[in-house]
TrEMBL record:
SUPFAM superfamilies: Nucleotidylyl transferase (SSF52374)
Protein name, per record: Tryptophan--tRNA ligase
Start and end residues of each stretch annotated as Disordered: 1-37
Keyword set includes Protein biosynthesis: yes
GO cellular component, one term: cytoplasm
EC number from the UniProt entry: 6.1.1.2
Name of the coding gene: trpS
Job of this protein: Catalyzes the attachment of tryptophan to tRNA(Trp).
InterPro entries: aa-tRNA-synth_Ic, Rossmann-like_a/b/a_fold, Trp-tRNA-ligase, Tryptophan-tRNA-ligase_arc
Acidic residues composition bias: residue spans: 7-17
Enzyme class per UniProt: ligase
Catalytic activity annotation: tRNA(Trp) + L-tryptophan + ATP = L-tryptophyl-tRNA(Trp) + AMP + diphosphate + H(+)
GO MF terms held by the record: ATP binding; tryptophan-tRNA ligase activity
Matches recorded under Pfam families: tRNA-synt_1b
């Protein structure tokens, strides 16, 4: 149960076995929210983050946390809960190799404490050695949200000032607007040749009423995501909320389609998918010690005798029978996707050891997959290609609004703007919904429900800073019934006031820095705001 502003309740579940500094699903959901559909321009939240692992292939961040050097407190506390292919970025940071981080901000209103999550993620990656990029998504704001250019200009300055005040180093990073970055627009044009309207229908629900500029803004976002790799391929992470995952999936697909070569594993001249290769690998492993040369027909016999019938096994057997006496041998395969004749010939020359050339692929017998990927990318870049690495992403939980539901810029009482008067910030926290019990007596007896409390989220996401011990203390005192809502909110309100005072002082200091940067904050563009659909 949640309460509005009582002074006698608290926030957390006393039977939760998880780390008390971890913010759980219950504290981040709005009643009736769609738990599967992800809409980058919608307002729904995610009612069960576990569904994202099942439905969309997002991996839990806990699985990669131990590989991250000096992890940010948002990672340690489970606020960053998921990732897509983050290991290459973590490895690059750990080993001091090139990496990049990029995220964008659609200037539709004041930056608020929910946006601070992304600001912090960019800044942390920059401090850990990654090249850092932050952009104002003004084309998207104009086409999809219908903002005028004057409105965009006003909000863009506020976002950038807060980013700088929180620690972004503009001398060691890049800030830009979509509308003034010609390299991004040129890349978007190239990427557009590998994006199809049918995909936009399937991913975003676009239809005949969707404006062309809205579709163009999506391709521009693909270009933003890949922009850090324009000079050279490097592991790149995009910190986003889970509602932005459709953009990440499309960007990874489009990046792959731009590549000259696809590298895969193979066992014979015919093509096989991943499940079929598993069967081929099993047959080869079983036969290689007994036969001088393992032939396709030998593998077919073994699969027929040893594997239970299923559709995959039967398809593999059919392919093996057709190949007959062809030797079955593990190899890596370079498939020609978009390579020029010169690049294809150069790759043939560069492949070491035994190799076999076909019309549209090359098989290499003395290379492993990782070395083959590196060689393919090197040849591609040397011959005018991009060589993009698939962009990675990390996902943070939505902050619950102070009044319940999702924190929203369009609902002033639900959020604390980074521009709010510190006294207003204090008052909003004091008036916030909590996860406390009906009475102080029940609170002391049962403990509060921190996992359903917007005020506890403020501690975990922001007010505790890097102090895990303090965040844990607040949680455990709440769960144990020692901490009541009145005192808890008073402490949080004081800390919020102090944060806003300090942040706004730093914003004032950064005004001159921003004015000296090469970024146009007074657009002379003209146009009628779009509406997306």
């Amino acid at each position: 149960m949640t309460r509005d502003d009582s002074g006698d309740a608290d926030s957390a579940s006393d039977d939760d076995p998880r780390d008390p500094t971890t913010v759980t699903d219950g504290g981040n959901t709005a009643a009736g929210a769609d738990d599967v559909a992800l809409d980058p321009w919608g307002s729904s939240t995610v009612s069960d983050y576990r569904k994202l692992f099942e439905e969309f292939g997002i991996e839990t961040f806990d699985d990669v946390l131990d590989e991250v050097p000096n992890p940010h407190y948002l990672m340690r506390r489970g606020v960053i809960f998921g990732h897509r292919d983050y290991r290459p970025v973590a490895r690059a940071l750990r080993e001091g190799e090139d990496a990049a981080v990029l995220s964008g901000f659609m200037p539709t209103g004041d930056p608020h404490i929910g946006h601070k999550l992304v600001f912090d993620e960019i800044i942390w990656h920059q401090q850990e050695g990654a090249d850092a990029y932050a952009l104002i998504a003004d084309l998207e704001a104009h086409s999809a949200r219908g903002l005028s250019w004057d409105e965009i200009d006003e909000h863009a300055r506020d976002y950038l000032l807060s980013l700088l005040a929180l620690g972004f180093d503009p001398e060691d990073g890049e800030l830009y607007r979509q509308s003034t970055n010609r390299e991004v627009q040129d890349l978007a044009f190239e990427l557009g040749s590998n994006a199809r309207f049918a995909e936009f229908e399937g991913i975003y629900g676009f239809d005949g009423e969707t404006s062309v500029s809205h579709m163009q803004s999506v391709v521009t976002q693909m270009a933003d995501i890949l922009y850090p790799q324009l000079e050279e391929p490097k592991p790149t992470v995009i910190p986003v909320g889970p509602d932005q995952d459709p953009h990440m999936r499309l960007a990874r697909d489009v990046a792959a389609r731009m590549r000259y070569f696809k590298v895969t594993e193979a066992y014979a001249s015919f093509e096989a998918d991943a499940a079929e290769r598993d069967h081929l690998a099993a047959a080869y492993a079983a036969l290689e010690d007994d036969l001088d040369t393992v032939r396709c027909e030998d593998a077919a016999d073994w699969l027929e005798a040893e594997m239970a019938p299923d559709a995959v096994r039967d398809t593999v057997i059919e392919k093996l029978r057709a190949a007959g006496k062809e030797p079955l041998r593990p190899r890596v395969r370079f498939l020609d996707r978009n390579a020029t004749d010169e690049a294809f010939d150069a790759l043939i020359d560069a492949v070491p050891g035994e190799k076999r050339r076909y019309d549209e692929h090359i098989d290499a017998f003395d290379m492993d997959r990782e070395a083959a990927e590196e060689l393919a990318r090197e040849v591609e870049v040397d011959h005018g290609g991009y060589g993009f690495l698939p962009p990675s992403s990390i996902y943070h939980r939505f902050m619950t609004g102070l009044t319940g539901g999702k924190m929203s810029s369009s609902v002033p009482a639900s959020h604390i703007s980074l521009l709010d008067d510190p006294e207003d910030g204090y008052d909003k926290v004091k008036s916030a919904t909590t996860g406390g019990r009906e009475t102080a007596e029940k609170q002391r007896e049962l403990g509060g429900e921190a996992d359903e409390c917007p005020v506890y989220e403020l501690y975990a996401y922001l007010l505790s800073g890097d102090d895990d011990e303090f965040a844990t203390e607040v949680y455990e005192e709440c769960v144990g019934g020692e901490r009541l809502c009145g005192g808890c909110k008073e402490q949080a309100a004081e800390l919020m006031r102090e944060f806003l005072e300090e942040h706004q002082e730093k914003r004032d200091e950064m005004a001159e820095v921003l004015d000296d940067l090469d970024i146009d904050l007074d657009s002379d563009r003209r146009g009628v705001p779009g509406s997306g659909h």
